[in-house]
Amino acid sequence: MERIKIYGSAISGNCLKVKWTADLLGITYDWIETDILKGETRTETFLALSPAGQIPIVVLEDGRVLEQSCAIMLYLAEQSGSNLVPSDPFEKATMISWLFWEQNFHESSIAVRRFRKRFARLSDDDIDPTLLTRGNASLSLMENHLAAQDYFGGTRLGLPDIALVAYTRMAGEGGYALADYPAVQAWIARVEAALGIPSYTEEQA
Ligand SMILES: N[C@@H](CCC(=O)N[C@@H](CS)C(=O)NCC(=O)O)C(=O)O
Fold first, then answer.
1. CA distances in angstroms from 44 to 51, 52, 166, listed in the order given
2. CA within 20 to 30 Å of 9's CA: 22, 34, 165, 194, which one?
């Protein structure tokens, strides 16, 4: 595959999903660390690449730009000819439905609450209380799903695991008690091992 550029940040789960997918697939890339806290996604140069002003983005060798973490993961997986994207249309749509759920329900509560607490340094009273309820509802749904299987797609690591683990492993920073979700905790360790990344607590130490 051509050499791509990934604009991302090491503190962002959305960006790490893309990095881990590329690493897993053996795709070579240039990583351009982009600091959202310093407004580096709001510069004229960045906005010319991505009018949405958000990371991650991928710039292909021919200059085309791809946005949205889960769309980028799908592109990398399909483009590299991996078996991470099922060929059966129902299985493929089921896999994609987890990616939509991650963005629509999980990330929009767990990642947002983590950002408000860890980076915006808001007190719990100043954070929308529904973020806690919806985040815990996400973790409960995952707990039930993972009680019966090792990975979201069944017996092996797939794109939904990579997408969902990104912010789930950081959920403690958002004020969620991961200890209440033992199957989720075991799954996090399994996915980290499969991706060959250190556990989040080790990374922070
Ligand atoms: N749905 C997007 C979300 C991207 C996103 O929220 N990016 C954040 C970092 S995690 C960002 O760039 N924030 C800066 C901003 O919005 O100004 C995706 O999955 O790629």
1. 9, 12, 29
2. 194
The ligand 1 atom at the shortest distance from the C-alpha of residue 15 is: 10
Which atom of ligand 1 is found nearest the CA of 56?
20
Q: Tell me the pLDDT tens digit for each residue of 38-92.
A: 999 999 999 999 999 999 999 999 999 999 999 999 999 999 999 999 999 999 9
Tell me, using a 6 A CB cutoff, whether residue 59 lines ligand 1: no
Q: Which residue ranges form the domains of the chain, and what is each CATH number? A: 4-79 (3.40.30.10), 89-197 (1.20.1050.10)
Report if pTM > 0.70.
yes
